[in-house]
Design a protein that fits this description.
This protein has about 180 residues and is α+β, with helices and mostly antiparallel strands. About 25% of the residues lie in helices and about 25% in strands. A hairpin with an 8-residue loop joins β5 (about 110-125) and β6. The protein is globular, with a radius of gyration of 18 Å.
């Protein structure tokens, strides 16, 4: 029993600082741009929001239909978070941005996901940024999307996440899957 507890303790400690060996890793171009990952829809879905934003809405913004945000994280990063309350280095959180529709087919009320707009990402990569987390936007105005992206300036996203995030620079408070996972521990 003592050996099993020691092995579990070592595993938990290693999850705090390094990614699991099979975890999909962020990839970068030679000029340090993040390459858009593939296959993220097979990761753990941690939550969705509709029309959420962090700034006061302008009239122009309130006239537009709200957008859905669907958030995914690598399975290994999710398991590490459940075990430790922190996301391991190389964690990638993908936020899909999808337009909402309301008047189609037989729908008479409510909103549904309509058209894929693009993705934004949060990446924990201690080898790339001293703040550990960086934030990226792959969305373009022409709808084609970027295949690579530079990180936002620190004061664009990082500062707000650092000030308001519930755990490890992540807005866990908005993701019921992550909240429930930690409560079960």
């Amino acid at each position: 029993m003592r050996h099993a507890c020691f092995a579990l303790l070592l595993l938990s400690a290693s999850m705090l600082s390094t990614a699991e060996p099979n975890m999909v890793q962020p990839k970068y171009t030679d000029d340090n741009q993040l390459i858009r990952p593939t296959g993220y829809r097979e990761w753990i879905f941690v939550g969705s929001s509709l029309g959420m934003g962090y700034q006061e809405a302008t009239q122009a913004a309130t006239d537009k239909p709200p957008q859905f945000h669907n958030v995914y994280v690598q399975p290994e990063a999710y398991r590490a978070y459940v075990a430790t309350g922190k996301f391991p280095d190389k964690t990638m959180m993908v936020m899909e941005v999808i337009s909402s529709g309301s008047n189609a087919s037989i729908n008479k009320k409510g909103r549904f996901e309509e058209n894929f707009i693009g993705i934004e990402m949060a990446v924990k990569d201690e080898s790339k940024v001293p703040e550990k987390w960086a934030y990226y936007n792959f969305i373009t105005s022409d709808g084609k999307g970027r295949t690579e992206a530079k990180p936002f300036a620190k004061d664009s996203c990082w500062s707000c996440h650092n000030q308001h995030a519930e755990a490890d620079n992540v807005f866990v408070q908005f993701y019921p899957v992550l909240r429930a996972a930690r409560k079960s521990k």
